[in-house]
Design goal:
The chain has 175 residues and is an alpha+beta fold. The protein has five helices and eight strands.
Length: 175
């Protein structure tokens, strides 16, 4: 995992308790959201399990003997969901997908790559997009399959592609 730059707040004990004052809380949530995205991006992860959160370096700082409570983690993830940066994967809201970019941003990134490589009016498999040699070095290379599919669905709604299934593969035709 690449090392991230921990913000100063990470060593400030009140950062690990959701603040009651609304303006302070908004700044705190924004700082946590930025930290979560940086942390997950550096480790190429997309999932947070709220039940396991206190066991991670992200939400636990032993140097100051502080852990973010599961309720606080949930508060932050729900705030991220309002901005389109996270979504629960289950009804109990214990496991969450976190988007380093919004689904629209991921979709635009993929579409720009398709256009730049002259792949409009052609079909790509989702495997090619995620793991193909031609996407190495692209930020979406290795993207979680569920997030990739949701990003492509956001493009489909805009009429820029069509998702399809053939044999045992999933593919997408770009327009």
């Amino acid at each position: 995992m690449a090392e991230i730059a921990w913000p100063w707040q990470y060593n400030f004990p009140p950062f690990f308790t959701i603040q009651p004052h609304s303006e302070t809380r908004q700044k705190q949530l924004a700082a946590w959201e930025e930290l979560i995205v940086q942390y997950l991006k550096s480790s190429k992860q997309h999932i947070i399990d709220v039940r396991e959160s206190q066991n991670t370096t992200l939400f636990s700082n032993p140097a100051i003997n502080r852990k973010l409570s599961q309720d606080a983690v949930l508060t932050i993830l729900e705030d991220m969901a309002r901005c389109g940066r996270a979504a629960p994967t289950d009804k109990t809201k214990t496991v969450w997908e976190v988007y380093w970019h919004s689904l629209d941003e991921w979709g635009n990134m993929i579409y720009n790559w398709v256009s730049a490589n002259g792949l409009n009016n052609s079909v790509c498999t989702l495997f090619e997009l995620r793991e193909g040699e031609t996407t190495e070095g692209e930020e979406f290379h290795g993207l979680d399959i569920n997030i990739l599919t949701k990003a492509l669905k956001s493009l489909e709604v805009k009429g820029k592609c069509e998702l399809m299934e053939f044999d045992d593969n999933q593919g997408v035709k770009f327009f």
